[in-house]
Amino acid sequence: MFRLQSSKVLAVEMTGDAVKAKNGSMVAYDGDMAFKKLTGGGDGIRGMVTRRLTGEQMTVMEVRGRGICWFADRASDINLVGLQGDTLSVESSNLLATDGGLRTGTAFTGLRGASQGNGLFTTTVEGHGQVAIMSDGPAVLLRVSPQYPLTVDPGAYVAHQGNLRRSLQSGVTFRTLLGEGGGEAFQMRFEGDGLVYVQPSERNTVGGDV
């Protein structure tokens, strides 16, 4: 069971089951726990191969046992997402922990690559269970509907779920509109029906100043 100990600390109550978490994110535990480092950023050979081809590194550990384990990373804000058989797409650097039974993998994001510039793929999580994602500041949850598509600064994008189509638009950014940008950059556009998580802070991106 996932719960927030605070806005920046995740507590996971375990009864012999397992949880997968970002390597090195465990800050304390109470009980009998075993830790195992996992290779690759997704389940199976495909996840490992695509990560290697794109140079994207996502080191994950498996924690199994009985008791309570606490996780945190760089004082980032933590957001809980419940999956009911659907899929969550998330930047690998924003993924903190998942229920052990959830499947992780990779998804193609386009020729400009993921928003952190780590490659052509982003992380997917699917199944039934809980996911903890991180954001730089409290995440904002935005609704996308067929009548109201959404355009997002790639540096602020964290994750999305639902029946959404994502596309990348190059040449114009929020800052270039204000005369502050430099070099080629792009925006992310979402159409369909679903939710998008954004953070109130921008990371550096492959597309230039955004």
From TrEMBL:
Coiled coil: none
Organism whose genome encodes this protein: Streptomyces prasinus
Protein name: AIM24 family protein
Pfam families associated with the record: AIM24
Source domain of life: Bacteria
Organism classification: Bacteria, Bacillati, Actinomycetota, Actinomycetes, Kitasatosporales
